[in-house]
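Table S5 (text form). Sequence records supplied for joint modeling of the two-component complex.
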Amino acid sequence: METVTLTIDGLQVTVEKGQSVLQAAIEAGISVPYYCYHPGIGVDGSCRVCVVKIEKMPKLQTSCSMACTDGMVVSTRDPEVVEARAGVFEFLLVNHPLDCPVCDKGGECPLQDFSYTFGPADSRMDFPRRVFDGEGVRADVDFGPTLMLNRNRCILCTRCVRFMREVDGDAQINIVDRGYGSEIATFSEEGVHSLMSGNLMDVCPVGAITTRDYRFKSRPWDNPNVVDTTCTLCSKGCSTSAWLKAKPEWAKGSQLIRITPRFNPDVNSYWMCDIGRFNYHWIEGDARLRRPMQRRGTALEASTWHEVEPRLRDAVQAAGSPDPASVRFLVSAHASTEELFVLKQLVEGLRGAGGLTSIAVAWTRTAKNQPAGTRFTIPATDAPNVNGARDLGYRVGAGNEGLPDLEDLRTAIEGGRVKALYVLDPGPEGSIGDVSWIVAARQSGTLPLLVVQGVLMTDLCAGADFVLPGAAFVEKDAIYTNDQGRVQAASRAIAPPGEAREDWQILVNVAAALGLSLAYSSSDDIRRALATAMPGSAYAQAGQITFTRPVPAKSWLQSSNPSERWKWDFMFQDLPPVKGHNVQTEDMGREGAYIPLRAVE
Amino acid sequence: MSFHPEMEYAPAKFHRSERKLAEPGEPFTYTPGNQARFDQVVTRYPADQRKSAILHALYLAQNQQGYLTAAAMRHVAEQIRCTPADVEDVVSFYTMFYTRPVGTYVLNVCRTLSCALLGAERVTEELGAKLGIKPGETDSTGTFTLVEVECLGACDRAPVVMVNDDWHEGLSPEQCATFIDDIRARGGAAFTGCHLKKEAGSGQQAADSGQPAEGSKK
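The corresponding structure-token record, covering 819 residues in total, follows.
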């Protein structure tokens, strides 16, 4: 790596050649404000707040668009810089409505934070603020099916314009009109129609773009905890953060309130799609299975685990005794690798080495409507773990590239050769495709016994003899193998509802009821066994995979955007804002005037 | 574009924007002549910078139907191979693109310093009084539209008025009423034109502005 060394505020900084001064300052923990700069999209240089003084240059320079060179001497605390920067901040707030108390961004807003740190305490503006589309919160207008736009709050950084142009690939947002009347707009106010639209809320440094899903639902300080996890709604496996809203004191547990992307350069960069971001309501929805159920006559009755397990054993043994091959399994590719591993041991323990032939793996594929030039492709496969199933030896046909082959199972069921079917599907509704033929076979009696281990009350569950409530992906520590073959950990953020259990636990208990002892007491045990069973593979380290627990959340910025992390370290030091006069630094020389965030060698 | 059908969103009962939009308009395509002209103009630019032809493409569309509708912008976007939002961005930036029908003659009165010192405000008033309209409006016959613009770059012959693509210099407030009558009577012959062009020799202006677009109202 070719490097250059420069001096910023008296601190020697060595960075990769080609980095901008702003990036170098951020890496060195020196606070320089910015709005239009975002590490995931191109440089624009339009917000002007990142100005710095560079020796031998006649004017102040925007650090985001200035490449580092050897021997460059940069000051971010020169009185000239401080004054010019404060002037820019004053201008940014000239028309900003300052409706922070009713703004969704309030508390995690770079405009608030940087204004607090670098801006002047008051404004000299005498005239009324420019207003678009009505006053205050009424100025929120439709911005497509997922978003709302408040033009009064917009500071015209054009991050959204560049995100759509560069990452989404379809430049639907632009600036219309000019000068003082400039505003962010889509053609004829049609709004943003994109599967990447949620990211616009992330890149917006103010509350101008908010999502309809999260709007007015929570404030940052209501979301005390966040969990780094992995999305499992398609085969990409984006790194995400699950945000937990605290419930009132008298209520138990917390609530999943939003999902945001987490930076992962190998998989999803700074972004995630709207499906992963917004399709989480089923997890805590009314259709969740909370208690085991068993059929009595025509109705499904809620039951308990200790009642269901022996009955399930009796039913399965009665159905499978004449011909063990007539007990078949249908497993969703939403099942984690641990669950697939336990299931494999279960069938092999009961039926011998060929047991896996009795299991069919199911998933669906949906064409995702994306522009041709997109930099973020959403895979067609709607399941996270097809590759995990393949690695364990399950039959998956063409894998992520194709559809599952269930013809064999279907022929067997419709031909009456299957006496018991056990379905395992911890995914959202529809994740194993059309299963009406199973329901029909059960109703007609062709299929005498149907057991469903799932998370949602689907038609399949409604037609089953036994329903075993499992856990959704944010409710268990589990590993999934994405379409790149990367083994990724999805951490548990919330507890399964009611009496629902983690799916590996259900499988272990079912195995025990059927007389097969699998000595696992945690999903960790399973991963260790998996690592032992598959040495030399991507799973050899599975025993060491760590899962995160809910941690105190400071801001989505902290988890999604490492280049902005310094700001939070900086903000939580309880230091006074860096202004022209700073009581803590007034006795220091200039070289002591930076606030060291790292040990200086 | 269909959105992901599995997701439910909050009902779309929020505010509609109050931004003034271009009319949706009738379905629009270039006439064969304008299409040929566009295809020729676009070859002036590198293939990967096709967007550079956007102003010319918009002028062709505007000259064809007098103003730009949303349908026309969409057509230009298809021709340029950019998004309609990119086209709207350009259209909304320039004052010489109209998103509403304008009169046969668009009177662009300069209101910047030199012209203002020599009575441009009164020129606007007089023209408005004669036509019975305010700046930004079109008269009832659809002949004249009055617009105030910034510097037209003819400060030495202020006050100056740009009429469509032509020039009229030294228009004093007193001459305004007769100027209108003169246009009604003689059309384009009523304009003084640019004195620099006249001094440099005739024919220059026609060469600069290219051939008139097909179907032009002017």
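Note: The first strand of chain B starts at residue 105 and ends at 110.
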